[in-house]
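DATA CLASS: polypeptide
GOAL: derive C-alpha cells

***
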Amino acid sequence: MIKKRKRHPTPILGTVLQKIAPKIGAVVTMEPHWQIVGQIAFKNGKNSYFRYSTLDLNPMGASELAQDKDFANYFIKKEGYPVVEGEAFYSNDWARAIRSKRTIDAAYRYAQKLGWPVIVKPNSGSQGVGVTLVHTKLEFYQTLRRIFKRDRVALVQRPVMGRDYRVVVLDQEIISAYERIPLSVVGNDRSSIAGLLKRKEREFKASSRDTRLRLDDPRISLKLKRLGLSFTSVPAAGERVYLLDNANLSTGGNSVDVTSRIHPAFKRLAIKLTKDLGLRLCGVDLMVEGSITDKPNKYWVLEINSAPGLDHYAQTGKAQQQIVEDLYLKVLKSLERGR
C-alpha cells in the first residue's frame, strides 16, 4: 500500500564505500545506530568522515553556498550562466524578524507580475521536496504556507520548458549525465491511476529501488485536478499521465542515461561551472531546449548540489550502479591524497 512512512533514511554512500574501500586498503566504519555517519581510515593513517551524501571533498564555504538556492543563483548568474528568473521571499515571522517587506503577500504580487503559472520551491532542501507549479492564488498561498512550515525562505520563479538533466562532475571529469523524467503512469484501460501507482511502487521494490510514492502528496492532487482527472480515473491503454511537474528520481521520476552522448560543450560548461563555484564534486541541474547531446542553444542552470545523492540513480540499473561505485572509488583516492 502506498502511504506516508516514517523511517530513518539509509543512503547508499556508506554501503558503497564499505564495498569499494578494500580496493585501496581503506576501512570504513559506520556509526551503528543510525547508519548515516561514517569514518574512512586510509592505510596512510589519514581519517576522513562523511554524513548522508556529504564527504570531506568540497570546501565548506562553497558547499554551504550551494545549499542556499537563492545565494547560489546570484553567484551562478554573476559568473555568466543563465538562471531561472525569480526572487526569494520570507515567512511573515522571519520577514518581521529581519525587517523585510518580502512577505507572503509580496510574493503573491511578484507571482502576478511574472504571470501564471509560477514555480514555488523551498530555498533549502533537495530531492525536489516542495517544488510545485501553481496556477491560482489559492494554490499559491496553500503551497507557500506548506513550505514555510519547514523553511523560512521560498523562491518564486518563472517556469522554463525543456528537458531536465543532472550532470555529475568530479574535478575535470563528467562522472554521469542523465535526463530526468517526471513521475508518470501508463494506462492499460483497466486500472485506476491509484492502482497504476501501486503497481509502479511494487516494480520499484522488486528492482530494489528505494523510492516511496505518496498518494497524499498535494502536488499530485493539483496535477490531476488540472488534467481533469482523479485517482479513480482509468487511463486508456498506452496513455501516459504525468503526475508531477518536477523530475526528481526521489519522487518517482525515471532516468535516461546520456553519459556517453553528452555534447562536449555541455561537458565543458558543467566542469567550468563546478570550478567557478569553488566545488570539486557537484551535481549540475540543467533545463535544456532540445537535447544535451547537441551543441548548447538555450539552457538554464536550475540548481547545483554539492552533495549529489546518487542513490536513486544507482538503483536504475547495473551500469549506473557501476558508475556510482567508480565515482566513489575516485573520490576515495582523492581523499587519501589530500586533494
